[in-house]
Write a structure and sequence with these properties.
four-stranded antiparallel sheet; 11 helices; six-stranded mixed sheet; alpha/beta
C-alpha cells in the first residue's frame, strides 16, 4: 500500500479549478517530483498531504489514515516540510532553527538533534550553529531549512521549489547533497519543481502537471523515452533531449 495516497482530489479557488480529480500514490522510499509551469496545481497538491490545503472533494491518506481524521498540527509535525523560501526564523540561530521540530515534539535532546541534522546537510555545527540566517548564503539557508525538516527523523519530507532561488552552481551542489541525504535517511519525499531537468536528477518518479491534472506519471528513467505532448514540451524547455 502506498505511504501517501491521493484520490480524486478537487480544489477550487473561486472560479479556478486548481486540482481536477487528481489521483496519485507515493510508495515508501520513493522520491516523487511534481513538475509543471506556474499555475499547474503542483504546490496545491503538495500541500494537501499535510493539510495546509483543504480539499473541496476527494481525500488524502497518509500512513493508511485519512488526513482529515488526524489533528492537523500533529500531522504537520510528523512530516518534514521545506518552504520555497526556506522559512527560517530570522532572529533564531541556525541551531535553534534546526532543533525547532524536535522541541515542539517534546524530545529531550532538540539541540543534539539539531546539531546532527546540520552535520547531515553538510554544515559543521562548530561553524554554523551560532550563526543567524542573515549571515548565511542562499544555499546555506536552504540547507538549514532541510536540516530543520529532517531533525525529528520524519518518514515523509515535502519540499516546495527547494532549490529554485539558488544560482546554478549552488543549486547543483544542493541537489546532490539532498539526493545523498534522502537516500541515506530512507525518507519518502515529494517535491515541487518547474524544472524537469532537476526532477530527472533528483527524483525516482515524476508526475507532470498541467491545469490541475496529471498528464504523465512514470519512473524518472522512463520520462525522456516516453514523453509526448506537454511532457515533451517541458523536456525541450528544460534543455533535455529526447
Amino acid at each position: 500500500m502506498a505511504l501517501i495516497r491521493i484520490e480524486r482530489a478537487v480544489k477550487r479557488y473561486g472560479d479556478v479549478l486548481a486540482l481536477d480529480h487528481v489521483t496519485l500514490g507515493v510508495d515508501r522510499g520513493a522520491c516523487l517530483a511534481l513538475v509543471g509551469e506556474s499555475g499547474s496545481g503542483k504546490t496545491t497538491l503538495l500541500r494537501t498531504i499535510n493539510r495546509l490545503t483543504e480539499l473541496d472533494g476527494g481525500h488524502v491518506t497518509v500512513r493508511g489514515r485519512a488526513v482529515d481524521a488526524v489533528d492537523p498540527v500533529r500531522l504537520r509535525r510528523s512530516i518534514g516540510y521545506v518552504q520555497q523560501d526556506g522559512g527560517l526564523i530570522p532572529h533564531w540561530t541556525c541551531l535553534d532553527n534546526a532543533g525547532l521540530v524536535p522541541a515542539l515534539l517534546g524530545h529531550n535532546d532538540p539541540a543534539e538533534r539539531g546539531r546532527d541534522a546540520l552535520h547531515a546537510v553538510g554544515l559543521d555545527p562548530a561553524v554554523f550553529a551560532g550563526r543567524y540566517p542573515r549571515e548565511l548564503s542562499g544555499g546555506q539557508r536552504q540547507r538549514v531549512a532541510i536540516a530543520r525538516a529532517m531533525a525529528a527523523d520524519p518518514d515523509i519530507l515535502l519540499m516546495d521549489e527547494p532549490f529554485g532561488a539558488l544560482d546554478a552552481i549552488t543549486r547543483n551542489e544542493a541537489q546532490q547533497s539532498f539526493a545523498a541525504l534522502r537516500e541515506s535517511a530512507g525518507v519518502t519525499a515529494v517535491f515541487v519543481t518547474h524544472d524537469l531537468r532537476e526532477a530527472l536528477r533528483v527524483a525516482t518518479r515524476v508526475a507532470v502537471m498541467r491545469a490541475g491534472e496529471i498528464v504523465m506519471e512514470s519512473a524518472a528513467g522512463d520520462i525522456v523515452r516516453n514523453a509526448t505532448g506537454y511532457a515533451a514540451e517541458l523536456l525541450e524547455k528544460s534543455g533535455v533531449a529526447q
